[in-house]
Hints:
The chain is an alpha/beta fold. The protein has helices at residues 16-24, 76-88, 107-120, 132-140, 147-150, 153-173, 181-195, 202-212, 246-250, 282-291, 310-320, 359-364, 390-403, and strands at 3-8, 29-32, 41-45, 48-52, 65-68, 73-74, 95-99, 103-104, 199-200, 216-219, 259-265, 268-270, 279-280, 304-306, 308-309, 324-328, 338-347, 350-352, 366-373, 406-411, 419-421.
Amino acid sequence: MPTLVIEGSQWGDEGKGKITDYYSQGADVVVRSQGGNNAGHTITINGEKFALRSIPSGIFNPKTKNILANGMVINPKQLLEELHTLESRGITDYKLYISNRAHVVLPYHEILDGLYESFKGNHKIGTTKRGIGPCYSDKANRIGIRMGSFIDEDEFLVALDEALKIKNEELRMFGISPLDKMEIFNEYKAYAMEIKKFVCDTSILIEDEIEKGSKILFEGAQGVMLCIEHGTYPYVTSSSPTASAVPLDSGIAPRYIDNVLGICKAYTTRVGEGAFPTEIEGNLASYIRERGHEYGTVTKRPRRIGWIDAVSLNYARRVSGINYLALMLLDVLSGLDEIKICYKYELDGKAIDYVPSTIKELERVKPIYLTMPGWNDDITNIKKFEGLPENAKAYIKKLEELTKTKVALISVGPDRKQTIEIMNIF
Ligand code: IMP
């Protein structure tokens, strides 16, 4: 199958970077189609760790074309920092393309992100404060600045002038001094000049590659439960990390999507605020957090920990088209006497098997668990499904049954080599 979408099936941070990197070995093209530097993908290559934010995980392969497509919001200053860091670590032979229709994150987006959060008080979203929401709002409000205009000095100055008329009023409302147009312009036009060589119509590029029969990976950021449409609104991000959004956000026809691989941890994590039905606390949560290094790549916040939630995974499968799962961090669960899987919720005394639409209801649900026996063996060097402990195999089989999805890959450690491939889907 020549195209594969990789998407988070929980609340992000499932390990998409590792799996994209795993498949990018054989990919001709890797596309990021939504989000921006709110994402943080960690990749370990030969024991060396790399943290990516806006750049696709195919960047380490000199032959792979890496595309930042139209649905993304791109912070040029951060993008260049990311690129320079990679270059200083020897990644100098790469192919990068940026859509001329992607939106640009500017300083007022980050400032407003922080201000909205502080004004929301107890109802804050817990955003990454990277200006993602305000940039997507400007896009919808038709006062955003796209890459194509950004790299043209005259157009950029006019667009910035227009945007600042509104943005500075907004800042004034919050009691913040207005931003100086020329200061932003002079700093950012230098970034624009450096980025210009990467900017093109990426929709044409992707279609050409599809027509040639190239293998294309679409690398999702965040996760289905953070989707602006289907996630736990309003505690979500401002784009749609689903496979359904990929064609729109990368300028291709829906018929070109072959397989959709949902990445999920063998447990669940969440950063930021919002309902989390299977959340656990105390020693057990600390055990999992420390073994799984569950601290945010972008913000370093400790992640909230919970058991795996088959109700929300099944929901993610339905709304986003997942047909395979990659089960990540299975090794983290080694050493536990028992492992739980949430297979239903109890809502006001009734058992339900769907995700309620309101936060109030989702906050009231209580998880109904199946308890399965754990395993003590170190599984970090296991290469085949058959080599896993019987209890681990039983856990995976049960998960497949409850989520109506086949597990195609299992990850038992951070390195590329610590991956058990059950099925070849790309
Ligand atoms: P924003 O995307 O910065 O606006 O943040 C909105 C919500 O999405 C917050 O709860 C963030 O913690 C969460 N979020 C955004 N990006 C990621 C990610 O890559 N992984 C996990 N959570 C994320």
